Amino acid sequence: MRRLIYILIFLITVFSKDSIAQGGGAMSPKRAKQIEAIKIGFITRRLNLTPEESQNFWPVYNQYQDELNQLLQQKKQNRIANTDNPDKLVDDDFNFDSKILEVRKKYRREFSKSLSPEQIKSLYAAEREFREELIKQLRQRSN
């Protein structure tokens, strides 16, 4: 039942009239913020965070997301810059993937300061489920 509610909230958000900016299908900042708010609610409910846990967890999680997003942006820019050199592209992809793994390991230790091992497991599962549902909805929408 809870999952159905999450999916409905997500669908309403995705299918509202403002969902895609006019610039070539890029997501508008407003839409990105809405999706981020839904993600925060989804993770908070999945982890069953108390107010105190939330207060300790979210600043760390936001730093984690910032570091991951920065690496992913760099990886994307690197891929664009190195389209003519496949060997370098593959090597650089491996290097970025290693850096991403190091960030994930670092923040797993940080998360353990405010979350139980079960909550950390649920966090990674919730992130994966949210991402899968988002991709599914975007694919359905593009068809």
Give a short synopsis of this structure.
The chain has 143 residues and is mainly alpha-helical. The protein has helices at 2-14, 29-47, 51-81, 86-111, 117-142. It is 80% helix and 0% strand.
What does this structure look like?
The protein has helices at 2-14, 29-47, 51-81, 86-111, 117-142. With 143 residues, it is mostly helical. The chain folds into two domains: 1-47 and 116-143; 52-111. Helix 1 runs antiparallel to helix 2. The longest helix is centred in the middle third of the chain and has 31 residues, at 51-81.
List keywords for this structure.
143 residues, mainly alpha
The total count of strands amounts to 0
Query: What is the string of helix and strand elements?
Result: HHHHH
Distance between the termini: 27 Å
Radius of gyration: 17 Å
Number of domains: 2
Largest sheet: none
- Based on CA inertia axes, which overall geometry fits? globular
Contiguous helical run count? 5
| Percentage of residues in helical conformation | over 70%
Structural class: mainly alpha
Strand share of the residues?
under 5%
Mean pLDDT: 85
Helix and strand topology:
Elements: H1 2-14, H2 29-47, H3 51-81, H4 86-111, H5 117-142
Helix pairs in contact: 1-2, 1-5, 2-5, 3-4
